[in-house]
Amino acid sequence: MVKGNSTVEGDTTINGNVSIGKDIVVNGNSTTKGDSIVEGNRNVTGSTVLHEVTINKSLTLADDAKIDLGNSDIEGNFDIYGDESKKSLSQALTQLQMTGPLVYVDSQTGKDVQRHTDVVRLNSGSDKPVRVTNVAAPKDTHDAVNLGYFNKQLSLNMGEVHNRINRVDRRLRGGIASAVAMSLLPQSYRAGESIVSVGGGTYRSASAIAVGYSRVTDNGRVVIKIGGSASKVRLKI
């Protein structure tokens, strides 16, 4: 029994059990050749290098914890816990598939599997859709499109459609006004008579003037009519 301080400069071998009631501080290096069992909690404030670790039950990470695997390989089967339920690795890879080759170890064959996919799907763990933010404007025909770019292009295309509709509407109003003017042209009815006539018409801010020539043959059996019109359409309806 050592009640005070003890300094051992050489080697010390303890064949029995050792119980330490208070804290123990090791300033130098410590090497444990056998197995080490920790029944309580263990807090590591600094860096820890683990060459081979076996976890028999569970490993819980804090909310802000991060794991950097680097070029490490992950083998075996394990479950990934989400907010509501746990998922196997294959299910997690199905829910979040990334373009390009994805390599993982097959649990049955033990070989590396390179998985290719043409579909990228984001799943929050439920049937609710998810949002993808900070998407840049596309540069290629196969790039993703954000809402701002889509609305801008839609506005430009709709403006062009409106312009075409307006041009068709102006032509339509001018044509109807010309038809009204042509219908008001009088014609000759007596045999051997020739007349020149003028008519006018309007329709929805469009106006037209028509000029015609008509002649009845001497025998009164044939009527010849020639006419033309010109219209003007105001831009505002």
From TrEMBL:
A GO CC term attached to the entry: cell outer membrane
Domain Trimeric autotransporter adhesin YadA-like C-terminal membrane anchor stretches: 186-231
InterPro entries: Pilin-like, Trimer_LpxA-like_sf, YadA_C
Protein localization: Cell outer membrane; Cell surface
Pfam family, any one: YadA_anchor
Gene3D superfamilies associated with the record: GSPII I/J protein-like, Hexapeptide repeat proteins
Entry keyword set: Cell outer membrane, Membrane, Signal, Transmembrane, Transmembrane beta strand
Protein name: Trimeric autotransporter adhesin YadA-like C-terminal membrane anchor domain-containing protein
Species in which this protein is naturally found: Rodentibacter caecimuris
Classification of source organism: Bacteria, Pseudomonadati, Pseudomonadota, Gammaproteobacteria, Pasteurellales
